[in-house]
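New to this. Please check this record:
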Amino acid sequence: MDLLHELVALALHASLLLLALCIGLDIARGDGLYVLRRPRLLMRALLAVLVVVPLVAALLVALLPLKESVEIAIVLMAVSPLPPVALPREIRSGGRKPYAYGLLVAVGVLSIVTVPAAVAILAWLFDAHAAVGPLAVAQLVFVSLFVPLGLGLGLRALAPGPAAQAAPVVGNVAVGLLALACLPVLVSAAPELARLIGDGTVLAILAVVLAGLVAGHLLGGPEPHDRVALALSSATRHPGIAMLVASANSLGGEVRATVLLFVIVGLMAAVPYQLWLRRHTLVPR
């Protein structure tokens, strides 16, 4: 079982690295700073991604009679913002690349501070020792996002044509690795998942996801396509950091099961939103 956990962690790391590399290969000059250069867009985005979703999660954890492992998983996911894996879907759903990529960079920069702070707050709230310290989490965010992103940018500058052709291939491999990493955990956590579905956990997760969709859509600004990108970014959290922190702290299978359940509910809840967008011709069919 220890070997399985090590392989899952390795696949998650590789997936994060390849997803960031894919973005670096695809991003155009100036896209990374698009949101940082627009303070109003930046503040709206940060409010949706880093304030509304964690606040809703904290309120639900405080008010609902949930298991402690479920509470930890929901809060962990709420403070693991802006998954790179969501970006291709955002763009297919109508999000503009400059805004979507600029949002990733902006939140990524801040996550070096916000993620370690959130892990420390989580450990304090649940009176637990965090085996993954703030510096280690900051290093994880930096290495998994900015190093491969910079490598992709460098390759794109040297060979724009081949880089653009390689980007979707690298992205598909990364998503495949993410699926492979989650599959064994999903199989091993099947009993825990069955118990979670009937105890109110799904409703709590759904409330957090819907809060992200609503907050992102309302705070995305006047451009409809930016609202699409922010809504999906706010609602969809990346399981990688959450599962790595959970594994490092030996939080148990139920935490990992809840993280996976959060991913599944988030993906399913976004489908009606995307259909609504198409019906109202806010995004291309």
Q: What stands out?
A: The chain has one domain: 2-279.
